[in-house]
Amino acid sequence: MNSLSLKKIAAGVYTAKTGDKTDGVLSLVANEPKIEAINNNYSDAPLPFDGIFTEKVGNKTVVCIPRNLSERHYGPGLRFRSLATNFSVLHMRCDHYGGSDNGRTHVPTPFYLSDAGYGVFIDTPEFITFYMGGTVRTDAKNPPEEQNRGRGPWSADTPSEFVEASFEGDADVYVFAGESMLEAVAKFNLFCGGGARIPKWGLGFWHRTHTQFDENDVKNEIKLFEERNFDLDVIGLEPGWHSNSYPCSYEWDEQRFPDPKEFVSSLLKKDIRVNLWENLFVSKKAKIYEEIMPFCGSHKVWNGIVPDFTLEKAREIIANQHKKEHIDIGVSGYKIDECDGYDEWLFPDHTSFPSGRSAAAVRNTLGILAQKNIYNAFRKENKRTYGLVRASAAGSAMMPFCIYNDCYSFEQYLTGLASSSLTGCLWVPEVRDAQTPEEWVRRFQMCVFSPMLMLNAWANGVKPWKFKEVEDTVRETVRFRKSLLPYLYNAFYTYAEKGIPPFRAMCLDFSGTGSQKRSGLDHTESPYETLRLFDTYDQYMAGDSIMVCPMRPGEKTRKISLPAGEWYDWYTGEYAGSGEMLQIECPLEKIPLYVKGGAMIPTVEKDGSLTVRCYGNSGSGFLYDDDGESFDFENGKYAYCEMSFIKENGAVTGKIEKTRGDGFVSEYKAVRFI
Amino acid sequence: MNSLSLKKIAAGVYTAKTGDKTDGVLSLVANEPKIEAINNNYSDAPLPFDGIFTEKVGNKTVVCIPRNLSERHYGPGLRFRSLATNFSVLHMRCDHYGGSDNGRTHVPTPFYLSDAGYGVFIDTPEFITFYMGGTVRTDAKNPPEEQNRGRGPWSADTPSEFVEASFEGDADVYVFAGESMLEAVAKFNLFCGGGARIPKWGLGFWHRTHTQFDENDVKNEIKLFEERNFDLDVIGLEPGWHSNSYPCSYEWDEQRFPDPKEFVSSLLKKDIRVNLWENLFVSKKAKIYEEIMPFCGSHKVWNGIVPDFTLEKAREIIANQHKKEHIDIGVSGYKIDECDGYDEWLFPDHTSFPSGRSAAAVRNTLGILAQKNIYNAFRKENKRTYGLVRASAAGSAMMPFCIYNDCYSFEQYLTGLASSSLTGCLWVPEVRDAQTPEEWVRRFQMCVFSPMLMLNAWANGVKPWKFKEVEDTVRETVRFRKSLLPYLYNAFYTYAEKGIPPFRAMCLDFSGTGSQKRSGLDHTESPYETLRLFDTYDQYMAGDSIMVCPMRPGEKTRKISLPAGEWYDWYTGEYAGSGEMLQIECPLEKIPLYVKGGAMIPTVEKDGSLTVRCYGNSGSGFLYDDDGESFDFENGKYAYCEMSFIKENGAVTGKIEKTRGDGFVSEYKAVRFI
């Protein structure tokens, strides 16, 4: 048993190594931590506990992190069924989500939160198991009392003085202390490099075409969208664009795309970007096959060889090929598929890799290193990219990629949105299909307040007008998303500069929004009576001020919980309530939205004018802007404007004033405060 | 890469060590292998493959077992959703079944079968991962061709030349070669000590009373059963009999059971045995607490200390206490609960144990060592026991315990029956409750052809007459079970002497009864098109000759598959078919049963006479008998009778003749052939 001595490295940020040979994910990813942003924006909170220690058991290192018995925990990792994790045992491993929140997930980042206002991050690329406060040591100082189930009442849960975590090798342990969980998350995100800088076009309307489409099919599809007034920003090409896929060649199928450069240019002329699907398993037919072979592992996936992405040389071969064949002709980004696993569709845990790193380490970092590789390739061209990926890890915050998966459950997609904010990544609840017109609309609506509005027709070739009776509603939903651009762009600015996630679980902004529920004792369904923590995931925050309460398909009314503070109806501007539960109805055309009193929400009209929606009697806000596609903002090419308003006798008087930056890039035709 | 040199140790049985430091489960359990039975009954088949090898990767040993690309695999481990396992990745770990066949199971025995007629067993107590023929090495001699998903058709599966398995430390590798999978299973079971010798009373009617019952409640319950003519053989007491449970004291609650000896005796006078529930986590209130403390692990479970069952001393303390407090006063056996995990309700993987063995090794052997301990305690008294347990491992065959769990799915309980025969254990689909009278009956019927007919009312206090309208049917179902005693006792004799499981998956007796099914390509449900092997689990063999085709609740008709050979209807004796599919109807009172032509099924009538049911025109069979409760059969105190019959003009002429053994224990009033 070795006590671990944590040293301060930024305001309220502490770290220690469990041993000398650490090989953390952050060091592999090499994002620059935003120490200054942490120090400038947040408190210098003390270490939230004493007595953290490690021990070696077999070939595992165990870290024991003290906790109060009543602390509520969130994470580690991206989850799809619940947020709070007390008493869970989580075997974290990068994998496709398999229907239960057991640690196998697309983003198994070993970072968890406590509602006492801190986060703990154990930086190792190895598989790591977390025992979230339910393991009682025989030598515990403060053990729970024995119970007698034969003379109930009895609970199966045994609160422990420690969260315990075990893994092979050594790790860097970090504690992010603050005055709230939000502060802890923000510090973690800033430490990982700050939130991603999304290009403006990335916040528009995405559509992925059928996997068998050729150049003409895509152009015809675009024409159909134009005729129907669906304004596309990004077209995604699925596996069929490759000359070989599963495994992949990364080269254009010459029959389908005889002139890729002309194809991409012609789309760019229409202001439509091209995003390319790929997986990371290399086909014999790829031109890079022979060159990358020496940097690949001992086992294949889908008969393709598997590059060791922890090797710079392997990444470089791919980046060079991508630059030449895709980026230089105007491709805007990638969808990096299949890097998460499902176990059966990945290399075994005993695969050898040329770096000498374990298969676990390669697996857990495959997604984040592939993202970083793409990000860097665009960065060198002073271009922002935006894309999709199915696996990530620590360091995700900075990466302009959304996590997606194949579970396609409305409820679980919604939970993913809340959970992503607790684990430093972006999650997209893409639209693929629907059984009813109502479901179709509700799924589009969920995407409006998400990092990406995307229709994914790779398999079924579905169009937004699938259901005639709601075609107009879907069109208006897409337009609504586009009108929110200034507000969403603000939110991503805050993500980058302050580490605050753009879409957030309620528990981050409002502590104590969860509940406890005792599971029933039941001899056929659940023979253990347990006390479980539940947290709100069916409403969430988008940006500073909007609370989104999605309607589920089939739902005519729903309950919403308004936290303390003044809340206003988005549509009417009327006062809605404070600190209360409401039962609301909502027509299909609308998303239930509530806005904080005093908020100013900048939106853009079809004619290019700016409308700032003001809620309550007075308030303030800001508007951030830049060119939306380069990194020139780093050299001052941006505008940060402060805004304020007063409402008197129903009339709004607003002000907007640039206070920082060298330019106001968007030329808004007019500015209106309502 | 080290090639592994397998040495023959019995007819068609081969073994090798992957290294010097093996600590196999079989050596911990110390069952006597029945080498003579293997040699006398089975073929001296050659090794089914060349080129098995091992390698060390990190701290894992990898074993690569060659296979033909077309081999079909079953196992490892007890499963609940499907039998065939090709392409699966299975992280074997003793655990409660969690809804998917991913390797976490009550019986994670690392033994798998090939339809080429062999089984492979890797004897290690550590967690072990199996890659069931889907992992393609980069240096494969015979790799599958690359496919192109962009130009379908495409399958996600990549058949491999190897099954690969990885684990920490070293292991004994065994190959059981034969002319069929049944032979391979039989050899494995005999090598593990042969099938369990169940006492006759164990094949009767079991009922577990409500957990809060005291002595009088139990006696009153028995009276009710007598009044309703439900003839009980075993009463199970649930946690409330302990002075403390969860964690456990193993001592009688003095208020509820002031005179346990008198209580148990009074039941024995009625020919009713008492079975005691327990878990393995020791309460401070237990008299053995101080004594066993030095032999316990570093973490508690439900605030109880956890004995290291790999230590003889720990087992001895428990066995002595059990002998004195329970066995000596006539208790017949135990239900050993909670030894499987659920992860949250077990010790963490980094728990230290005084034996120095890993937590994995202790976890994986907890169930089997607890069984062996109980078995030995009764063996010393020349008494057979029979009970329940929620976890087991290699060596299970010999243990008179049934595996059970909490999933309570009719379909999955049925699958468990088939699967148990492939992994060397007994599985019981106990009755706990039902939504409808029909389900109630169908669940009892499934138990008739299972190792144990048990109603488990621990939580709800349910009685067999829960549904008045089917009370008679349930009563007749219980009587039917009891009438089958001679036939079931024969089946268990064959299990013990020849290793043939009493209840068997169809694929063991009839190869090629499975099918292949291509999963649909679907963008929302299943984005991978895969070829999966399916095997029949909804009909199964019971004993030598009966095929059971259970009706599911809600099913009015069902399809059955009659394999090649002559099949007869159990009830009418009429010829039913051969090698064909039938669509059958079946009234609620009946279980669809088909009997092999030439079979003789001994049954016992209510008046104590023996009726031998003869199917087809002529045939033969046997009848094994002994005292049903001791091990005196080892000293010749048994009777083995050969039987034969001829049917002419509808009249059956039968013969029965003792050919081995010193006694014919049961005094049948009469013997009748029909």
Describe the structure.
The structure is a homodimer of 674-residue chains. Chain A is of the alpha+beta class. Chain A folds into 3 domains: 190 residues, Immunoglobulin-like (Sandwich); 261 residues, Glycosidases (TIM Barrel), CATH 3.20.20; 74 residues, Immunoglobulin-like (Sandwich). Chain A has 13 helices and 37 strands. The mean pLDDT of chain A is 95. The first copy, chain A, is globular and about 70 Å long. In chain A, helix 3 crosses helix 12. At the A-B interface, strand 12 of A face strand 12 of B.
Could you tell me the number of beta strands of chain A? 37
**Class of the largest domain in chain A, according to the CATH hierarchy?**
Alpha Beta
Q: How many separate structural domains of chain A?
A: 3
- Give the averaged pLDDT of chain A, no decimals: 95
Q: Quote the beta fraction of chain A.
A: 25-35%
Proportion of helical residues of chain A: 10-25%
The CATH architecture assignment of the largest domain in chain A turns out to be: Alpha-Beta Barrel
Shape of chain A: globular
- Gap between N and C termini of chain A: 63 Å
Spans where pLDDT lies below 50 across 5 or more residues of chain A? none
Query: Sheet with the most strands of chain A?
Result: 8 strands, parallel
